[in-house]
Design goal:
Length: 499
C-alpha cells in the first residue's frame, strides 16, 4: 500500500495541542471579567469550553500518531493551519458576546491580533461607513479588551518560537535571516539546542513585558492599562484600550516608555541576550542593528524638521520619534496622525509600511537585514560590471554572504511585491475604497503594521471594507506573519502533488 503524501493524523494532533493552549490562554481573561463585572463570564466560559473540547477531541482522535512522522509537508501544514485554527477559535468571545456580531469582522479583528498587525474594524462613524457594524474600543468589556491584547502577545511570542524551533526543522529559507544562522554573523549562539534557545527567548519576552508593565505603573497608569499596553508593545502589535491610541493618555512619560520598549521589541532578541551577557562586540559588529538605529535617528530628525511649527522642540521630536519607531517596528500605535503632515510625510510613512525592523524580533515587514543585503548586492553588481572576472562577495557583519542566501533574498522580495500587487488589485476590484487606500491597506496587512493611508490612517478604521476584502486582508496578514513562503507553498498545487 503506497505511503500517504501527508500524514493528517499527526497534523491534527499538533493542531489539537495548539487549540488547547489557545483555550487555556483565553481563560486568563476570566479573572478580569469577574473583577470588572463586565458580563463576559458566560461568553468566555463558553468559548473556553468549546475550544478546549475541540482540542481534546483532536488529541484523543489522533493519539496513535508518531512524532517522527512530522516531515516537511506536515510541518508546513501545521504552521499554516495552526495559526488559522487559533484565529478561528480566538474570535469566539467576540461572536458569542455579540460585541462583534459578524464573522467577517470578528475574524479580521482576531487575525489582526494574532498576526500582531493591529488593524481594527472598531470605531468610526456609522453614517460614513454605510451602515456597517461599528463599535468603539472603549465600549468593549474590559476582559474582552484584555483578550484582544492577549492575542497579540501570543502572536508575538509565537513568531519567535516559530522562528527558532520550527523553521530550522522545515528548512525554510526565512530562518537563515535569524541571527544565529544569519549570513555572516558571529558564530556565537544563544545555545546549541533549539529548545534551550526558545526557552531563553521566552524569558526575554516575558521579562520585557513585566518590565514595561512596572514602568507604566510608575508613569501613572493603572494595572489594567499597563498590562494591556505591555502585551501589545512587546509583541509590536499596537492594539490599545483607548479609541485614540496612546494619544488618549496625554502623558509624555508613557510615550517615552513605550518608545523604548517598541525599539527593543524591534531589535533582534539574540542581540538583547548578548547585551544581557555583556557581549558588546556582537552588537557593535551587527550591521542590521546599525542600520536600524541610523534609520530611527535619521528619520526622526528629518520628520522633526518637516513637522516643526514653531512650538515646543521637545514635543516635536517626541512626536516624530514615537511615530517613526511605531511604524518601523510595525507596532502601529499613534500619538498623532501623520496624514495631517502633508504628502511628503505620507510618502515616507507609506514606504515604512514595507520596512519592518530586525530579523529575530517580533516585528513584521520585509526586515532591515533583507533591505541592507539588497542594497549591498546592488552596489556589488556595479563593481562586477567593471570587473567581470573578479570574485566580489556581498559582506554582512564583515563576513561573506553565501549565494543561496542572496537567491533566497531575491525570491522573497519578488514574492513580497507580487503578493502586494495581486492583493492591491483584488481589494481595489471589490470596491468601497480609493486606490491609495487599497494599496495602503494591502501594504499594512502584509507588513503587519496596522495603520495605512486615507480612511485607514491612525485615526481610521477598516470597518467600511466589504467582507471579501476583509478576508483577503486577513489572509495577507497571515502570509506576512509567517514569512510568505509557508502559506504560499501550502496554497500551491505542487505542495499536494506526489513527485
Amino acid at each position: 500500500m503506497p505511503k500517504r503524501l501527508i500524514n493528517f493524523r499527526v497534523v491534527l494532533h499538533v493542531i489539537g495541542s495548539l487549540i488547547i493552549i489557545n483555550g487555556v490562554l483565553m481563560s486568563l481573561a476570566i479573572p478580569f471579567s469577574l473583577y470588572y463585572k463586565d458580563g463576559m463570564l458566560l461568553p468566555f466560559a463558553t468559548s473556553f469550553s468549546i475550544t478546549l473540547l475541540v482540542g481534546l477531541f483532536l488529541r484523543i482522535y489522533t493519539r496513535e500518531h508518531k512524532n517522527d512522522e512530522i516531515k516537511k509537508r506536515e510541518g508546513f501544514l501545521i504552521v499554516a493551519m495552526g495559526w488559522l485554527s487559533m484565529a478561528l477559535f480566538g474570535c469566539l468571545p467576540y461572536l458569542i458576546s455579540g460585541s462583534i456580531p459578524h464573522i467577517s469582522d470578528a475574524f479580521f479583528e482576531t487575525m489582526s491580533g494574532f498576526t500582531t498587525t493591529g488593524a481594527t474594524i472598531l470605531g468610526g462613524d456609522p453614517a460614513e461607513l454605510g451602515g456597517n457594524f461599528v463599535n468603539k474600543i472603549s465600549h468593549l468589556p474590559e476582559s474582552l479588551l484584555f483578550w484582544r491584547s492577549m492575542t497579540q502577545w501570543i502572536g508575538g511570542m509565537g513568531i519567535i518560537v516559530l522562528t527558532v524551533a520550527i523553521l530550522p526543522m522545515l528548512g525554510i529559507g526565512g530562518m537563515e535571516l535569524f541571527v544565529a544562522e544569519a549570513p555572516g554573523p558571529t558564530k556565537d549562539k544563544i545555545h546549541p539546542r533549539i529548545k534551550e534557545t526558545a526557552k531563553r527567548l521566552w524569558v526575554i519576552y516575558l521579562s520585557l513585558t513585566l518590565l514595561e508593565t512596572i514602568a507604566l505603573l510608575f508613569c501613572g497608569l493603572d494595572f489594567y492599562e499597563s498590562i494591556n499596553h505591555a502585551l501589545t508593545t512587546n509583541s509590536t502589535g499596537g492594539f490599545s484600550t483607548q479609541d485614540s491610541s496612546i494619544a488618549g493618555f496625554g502623558n509624555p512619560a508613557v510615550e517615552y516608555v513605550i518608545v523604548i520598549f517598541m525599539f527593543l521589541a524591534g531589535t533582534n532578541f539574540t542581540l538583547i541576550y548578548f547585551a544581557l551577557k555583556r557581549k558588546v562586540f556582537q552588537i557593535r559588529e551587527n550591521d542590521e542593528f546599525k542600520w536600524y538605529l541610523m534609520a530611527v535617528v535619521g528619520l526622526t530628525v528629518l520628520l522633526s524638521f518637516l513637522i516643526y511649527n514653531g512650538e515646543s522642540i521637545e514635543e516635536t521630536i517626541r512626536t516624530a520619534l514615537f511615530q517613526v519607531v511605531s511604524i518601523i517596528t510595525t507596532t502601529g500605535y499613534a500619538t498623532a496622525n501623520y496624514s495631517n503632515w502633508g504628502p511628503l510625510v505620507m510618502l515616507i510613512f507609506f514606504l515604512l509600511l514595507f520596512s519592518g525592523a530586525s530579523a529575530g524580533s517580533t516585528s513584521g515587514g520585509i526586515k532591515i537585514v533583507r533591505i541592507v543585503l539588497l542594497i549591498k548586492n546592488g552596489l556589488v553588481e556595479f563593481k562586477r560590471r567593471l570587473h567581470p572576472k573578479a570574485v566580489i562577495p556581498v559582506n554582512l557583519n564583515k563576513k561573506p554572504v553565501p549565494n543561496n542566501i542572496i537567491y533566497n533574498l531575491l525570491a522573497f522580495i519578488f514574492l513580497y511585491l507580487f503578493i502586494f500587487t495581486i492583493g492591491s488589485i483584488l481589494v481595489t476590484m471589490f470596491g468601497g475604497v480609493e486606490f491609495e487606500e487599497a494599496i495602503s491597506a494591502v501594504a499594512t496587512s502584509v507588513g503587519n503594521v496596522g495603520p495605512g493611508l486615507g480612511d485607514f490612517d491612525p485615526d481610521g478604521t477598516f470597518a467600511k471594507l466589504p467582507d471579501a476584502s476583509k478576508w483577503i486582508l486577513s489572509l495577507l496578514m497571515l502570509m506576512g506573519r509567517l514569512e510568505l513562503f509557508t502559506v504560499a507553498l501550502v496554497m500551491t498545487p505542487y505542495f499536494w502533488r506526489r513527485i
